[in-house]
Design a protein that fits this description.
The chain is globular. By secondary structure, the chain is α/β, with parallel strands linked by helices. It binds 2-phosphoglycolic acid (PGA).
């Protein structure tokens, strides 16, 4: 049986109080863990609130949305991996498309972040995905493979044991236009081949981009899709619980 990962990316929503209320409401809907794994990526200020609200549910992951690669120092506004871990994070998103395209994060910076996350023993969730114009030019495979190899450069396969990759086509994020299960599966297969060659054949590959309770089952029906990374539809506890519940009958 596959263990899928349902990851909620709250982006710049949900402060500590709202986060506590969210988890309390979610727990009413999902009082016990289902067959698959769930993880929340709150804003950094809410990590501790989420982690504390879930101390008796250790199977549920808590992650940070972005990190700096240095452990500490004069980096105003930044959050390091050890700081996030102290707040309760055990996972970290790396290279989300908004980091790349809104904040201008480079592939080299992403690689440094990924290394810092791996060396600290947290689970990295590396996001890759093409722009619409790249897809239209037929460059999707080349783009995601370039992003994958750039992020993992210099790491040994032994360091990639906990790695998760999320394929998130930029044109599908927050647009209501998700990739078809076939399109997602095709890109996942390309990533899978590359990960096998890199010595990380077990890496879970998530799909992200306008996932909701209505389309998640058809995406997860594909063997190539090992879970989902959900933004907008993860901001409401009942909507999120409904998405997670779709996994209960998938084995
Ligand atoms: P979305 O965002 O579900 O709102 O499209 C997904 C993501 O950015 O991770």
């Amino acid at each position: 049986m596959r263990t899928l990962l349902f990851a909620a990316n709250w982006k710049m929503h949900t402060g500590p109080r709202a986060a506590r209320e969210f988890i309390a409401a979610y727990r009413l809907d999902r009082p016990t863990d289902g067959p698959h794994q769930v993880a929340f990526f709150p804003p950094a200020v809410s990590i501790e609130a989420v982690a504390q609200a879930l101390t008796d549910r250790p199977a549920i992951g808590v992650g940070v949305q972005n990190v700096h690669w240095e452990p500490k120092g004069a980096y105003t506004g930044a959050v390091s991996v050890p700081l996030a871990a102290e707040a309760g994070a055990t996972m970290a998103l790396i290279g989300h498309s908004e980091r790349r395209h809104v904040f201008g994060e480079t592939e080299e910076q992403g690689a440094r972040k990924l290394r810092a996350v791996v060396e600290a023993g947290l689970t990295p969730v590396l996001c890759v995905g093409e722009l619409l114009e790249e897809r239209e030019r037929g460059e999707t495979e080349a783009v995601v493979l370039r992003q994958l190899h750039a992020a993992l450069a210099g790491l040994e396969s032994a360091q990639l044991g906990s790695l998760v990759v999320a394929y998130e086509p930029v044109w599908a994020i927050g647009t209501g236009r998700n990739a078809t299960p076939e399109d997602a599966a095709a890109v996942h297969a390309v990533l899978r081949t590359a990960l096998r060659e890199l010595g990380a054949p077990e890496t879970r590959i998530l799909y992200g981009g306008s996932v909701n309770a209505g389309n998640v089952a058809s995406l997860l029906a594909r063997d190539e899709v090992d879970g989902v990374l959900v933004g907008g539809a993860s901001l409401d506890p009942a909507a999120w619980a409904a998405i997670v519940a779709r996994g209960d009958t998938i084995h």
